[in-house]
Amino acid sequence: MLVGVPREIKTHEYRVGMVPASVRELVHHGHQVMVETHAGHGIGFDDPDYAAAGAEIVDTAAEIFARADMIVKVKEPLAPEIAMLREGQVLFTYLHLAADRVQTQGLVDSGCVAIAYETVTDDRGGLPLLSPMSEVAGRMSIQVGAHCLEKESGGRGVLLGGVPGVPAADVVILGGGVVGTNAARMAMGLEAKVTVVDKSLRRLYELDLQFGAKLNTVFSTVDAIEKAVAQADLVVGGVLLPGAAAPKLVTRDMVKGMKRGAVIVDVAIDQGGCCETSRPTTHADPTYVDEEVVHYCVTNMPGAVARTSTVALNNATLPFVLALADKGYRKALADDRHLLAGLNVHRGRITYAAVAADLGFDFHPAASALV
């Protein structure tokens, strides 16, 4: 198979779909790989590194899209990239379609085969291709939240861990999954007062066993969220409904009730965000103030630590890339129900139920769409 790796064009996105070691593995399996020039330059993976791994270096994304059987990316395709997709071409990347009707319609119209990292599953009910970036985003949420709390950034002027004689900041984390767990770990390490809110009693029990008395766990109700958000200096939105739009857990009225200069870091913004006041931002202009609360809603947070994120993502995606290349997409999907769960669009049809429901498209089960 001929696999193409274009350079990412989203604002301040320096991650790359495949690192040289992954390219070498594909070549070892007998495949060809094209990499757009400077695709990994921003994180220290240069054209000679890819060439040494066996890749063909090409000058333009247009050549990648025109020739490749499968496109491997990091972020969702933007309009110029969607326009270059071909009928039957495999696209393997993050998509987050439930929050993006325009992209979804573009993929449907292209006739491509779009497989989303974020909906591939595993035997434990997890999302193995989303987890590495969720780990990064969860840890980063505390890092950027602490910075946003600084007065110079528009925040309250509060140090997360406080100092002797001065109370630590109140950090409220909505969702106790991968994002929430990593955020809690970092916030507790900085000696903040941390509360995790989740609707799963089992998950709260697991977090209690993991972190002990240093972590406060709260069962999620509207009342509990309202009270927790009102006292928070920093709120981290880490809720996830796989493949679907994030629930709006924090209303505008709740934001109005927050402390002036408090901070919301909405990690769920890729799926539309879990706060009514959240709207997507970029690394170039990451924050805005609404209801006197600082909002950080960057849609590609892990891109800020692009080298770490790229290597972590490649570790998870490589086995699936190899399966798709070795077997062809039809057999690879038929052989692996977890990879099949990643199929969101197949030759003009929506094959992921949550995306179809959220955007009002007809739903076609993935297994039957392949027949």
Summarize the structure.
With 371 residues, the chain is of the alpha/beta class. 37% of the residues lie in helices and 16% in strands. It is globular and about 65 Å long.
Provide structural commentary:
- This protein is α/β, with parallel strands linked by helices and 371 residues long.
- The protein has 2 domains: 2-120 and 305-370, 3-Layer(aba) Sandwich (Rossmann fold); 143-299, 3-Layer(aba) Sandwich (Rossmann fold), CATH 3.40.50.
- 37% of the residues lie in helices and 16% in strands.
- It has helices at 20-28, 47-52, 61-67, 79-82, 101-110, 131-148, 178-189, 201-211, 222-231, 252-256, 306-327, 329-335, 337-340, 353-359, 366-370; strands at residues 2-5, 32-36, 56-58, 70-72, 90-93, 113-116, 170-174, 193-198, 215-219, 234-237, 263-266, 287-290, 293-296, 343-346, 349-350.
- The strands form 2 sheets. It has an 8-stranded mixed sheet, with helices on both faces.
Topology:
Elements: E1 2-5, H1 20-28, E2 32-36, H2 47-52, E3 56-58, H3 61-67, E4 70-72, H4 79-82, E5 90-93, H5 101-110, E6 113-116, H6 131-148, E7 170-174, H7 178-189, E8 193-198, H8 201-211, E9 215-219, H9 222-231, E10 234-237, H10 252-256, E11 263-266, E12 287-290, E13 293-296, H11 306-327, H12 329-335, H13 337-340, E14 343-346, E15 349-350, H14 353-359, H15 366-370
Parallel strand pairs: 1-2, 1-4, 2-3, 4-5, 5-6, 7-8, 7-10, 8-9, 10-11, 11-13
Antiparallel strand pairs: 6-14, 12-13, 14-15
Helix pairs in contact: 6-7, 11-12
